[in-house]
Amino acid sequence: MENIRQNLIAAGVKPNDKDVIDVKLLAIDPGSYQTGYALIRTGDAEILEYGDKIDNRQIRRRIMQRDYDILVIEILAHMGNKGGASLYETAYWIGRFREASRMKNCHLMYRREEYMHFFGTGSGNDSAIIATLKGRFGDKGTKKDPGWTYGLSGDAWQAFGIGVIAADKLNNRVHLED
To answer: What is the pTM of this model?
Structure first.
């Protein structure tokens, strides 16, 4: 993320008086046919847009709109198991998403990187990430009284988590679970 920070500064993006860069970040949690995403502001992790189980062709078109400054895509890691068709299809789409971004300010993030950021260890699970995000940003709330993460579900939660980590790294913030 340091290179992306330098690229943004070189392109004229100025950090504020607290050395925070506030730009739009599109975070992708890819799947074999459907994907979750979150568009957030890096300054405070405000959720601008999100989606869960969106067709990958639609996500690719969304990436090509380029109405964001940074793209972060979760990438597959070898876990020692045999891979099936779903794994290879997901890998294919990760490449297509990266290609659609023209690789400008595109960062690939391993799930292990997420666990290290949130928990200080290389292991965790989706529900632990969601609990950590709720602890940091508050509960989802209700339709009548929406919270910061109101409306997030499924893979959109994971995409939001990826975005939060990338924003933290971009702005040199560290948040480990207490």
So the answer is: 0.91
